[in-house]
């Protein structure tokens, strides 16, 4: 399923030629079995066998019929599916549209001299299913406001449905009031506030990737499709051919144990270790202890995001002290606030594996960094939402679509 970010199709080809006809789940160059198996046991309690390629010969008939309808609609120019991109991550939106064989919708977005945002759709969306691709990554407030204005523009243009595709949901960490033993209270639950803003602006549905906590879905009064970036990262790790006997999955804090446990189950039920830490303030962490055995092992640290990299780098230092042979960092969202780059490139990590939910500036690349694309994951979900097709049809449940 994973393919590297730099492996995008040439933009000089027409969109119809860029469409990936088969297989529906892609492994890129790694299309054979490896000693390390990815177990496709999804987080919703479903069970399936090992994760196999989904080709035209193995896909469910209903899925192939759905794709055929989509391709016929594109060919005849009768599709009611429209994809627009904000300014936050246009490259990801382009990959999504290429996967579906569509052109990105034409939209004009500009800032006035006083900073106000202007949005104009430059094609008709009347009666269409519109998907707006806009992560609320830094600058979070700018990108969030842009998304709200885009939604309002689509609503006033008589779109049939409006889905906000938010690969990275900013403010997700402000999902509850902190313990009174940590802060003095009197805090905003900004995740709920942002959910209300998106709902009231006119969105009919939200498609989000790896929310910081599952309860954030409940903050929305509209349907939320929550997809996980784990299959993309798991598939890449499987291609490295690491023996399952040498693996240990590490949670960088107690709060991420459930995520790490699910990840470990899909890596041939690898053992689990936990880094115990004490946080003294926002973006400040102190490692205290390690629960589990990592001596002589390849440690895979799993988290939903890396911000300043304080937690994960201190955890990696502890793992090396405890005898870990190699340390890999895996995360879906690379926020990379300073001094994250200096910490991650300091030699603690054999490899830092991220996805492209947040665009990465050129100066933030370093030798140990690997960027995987979630475009196919999001595109498959968009296709199912548009075609009213459930994500739980095997083997599509391995995508983590609810």
Give a brief rundown of this model.
The protein has 402 residues and is an alpha/beta fold. It has helices spanning 15-18, 61-75, 90-100, 140-156, 190-201, 230-239, 257-266, 310-321, 340-344, 375-386, and strands at 81-85, 107-111, 117-121, 129-133, 161-166, 205-209, 224-227, 247-251, 272-281, 284-291, 298-306, 326-334, 351-355, 369-372. The protein is built from ten helices and 14 strands.
Q: What can you see in these coordinates?
A:
By secondary structure, the protein is of the alpha/beta class. The chain has ten helices and 14 strands. The chain has helices at residues 15-18, 61-75, 90-100, 140-156, 190-201, 230-239, 257-266, 310-321, 340-344, 375-386, and strands at residues 81-85, 107-111, 117-121, 129-133, 161-166, 205-209, 224-227, 247-251, 272-281, 284-291, 298-306, 326-334, 351-355, 369-372. The strands form three sheets. The chain has a seven-stranded mixed beta sheet with strand order 10-9-8-11-12-13-14, sandwiched between helices. A hairpin with a 2-residue loop joins strand 9 (272-281) and strand 10. Helix 3 (90-100) packs across helix 10 and helix 4 (140-156) packs parallel to helix 5. The chain is globular. Mean pLDDT is 81; it is low at 1-60 and 393-399.
Which residue ranges are poorly predicted, with pLDDT under 50 across at least 5 consecutive positions? 1-60, 393-399
Strand numbers in spatial order across the main sheet: 10-9-8-11-12-13-14
Please state the average pLDDT score: 81
* Proportion of residues in helical segments: 25-40%
| Structural category | alpha/beta
